[in-house]
Amino acid sequence: MIEMNATGKRSLLLAGLMTLGAAFPAGAEVVGKIGVDWIGNDIVVEALADPKVEGVTCHVTYFDRSVIDRLQKGNWFEDPSNNSIACRQTGPISVGDIDLSEDGEEVFRQGMSLIWKKMVVNRIYDRKNDTLVYVVHTRQVTDGSAKMAISTVPLYGQAVNWKNGKPQ
Fold first, then answer.
1. Does the reported pTM lie above 0.85?
2. Residue 58 burial (CB < 10 Å; 0-12/13-18/19+)?
3. What gap in Å lies between CA 10 and CA 154, rounded to an integer?
4. Is the pLDDT higher at 112 or at 147?
5. Phi, psi (deg, nearest 5) at residue 14
6. How far apart, in whole angstroms, are the C-alpha atoms of residue 72 and residue 53?
7. Are 148 and 126 in contact (CB under 8 A)?
């Protein structure tokens, strides 16, 4: 049996918890990672395919804090709420069974902290302007983040296949 002192146990726990927080959900693919400083902080770029709208890909960026930054500044289990999004047509568009309500639906969710904080991408269909609207924001239990970004994919004039018929 291997014995560890309290410092070793804390280090092992921290490493395990950060690994859990950094896990990527299915559907997100890291396509780039930009080192922003010498202590290992990165801007991560992920490609997300909308699971219900074929032919649309969103690229999301977020800040990934390094172990050194976490140790220096505390708040070990959380990344900042600085996110950006750009969504574009990347193939023929085929719209499946999407939520057409005013608050739309969640397309993607990824942990930004050990337990509570999540980066979320929501899709809303703007009927009047025939446009898909994507919003990235951070959700927290105590309060949300006012930091958000928006991207749109206009469908007007496009050859769009609506699997359930175009909404009127």
1. no
2. buried
3. 50
4. 147
5. -60, -45
6. 42
7. no
Name the average pLDDT for the chain.
Answer: 76
3-state SS class at 43:
strand
CB atoms under 10 Å from CB of 6, counted, come to: 7
- Kindly give, in sequence order, each residue whose CB lies less than 8 Å from that of residue 118, ignoring residues fewer than 6 positions away: 109, 110, 111, 112, 138, 139, 140
CA angle 93, 96, 102 (to 5 degrees): 100
- Interatomic CA distance for residues 126 and 105, integer angstroms: 13
Mean pLDDT of 44-73: 81
Helix (H, G, I), strand (E, B) or coil at 127: coil
Tell me the pLDDT band of 6, cut-offs 50, 70 and 90.
Answer: very low
Give Cα 104 to chain centroid, integer Å: 16
Radius of gyration over every alpha carbon of the chain, rounded to an integer in angstroms: 19
Q: Check residue 119 and give its pLDDT.
A: 79
Share of the chain above pLDDT 70, in %: 64
- Maximum CA extent, the chain: 68
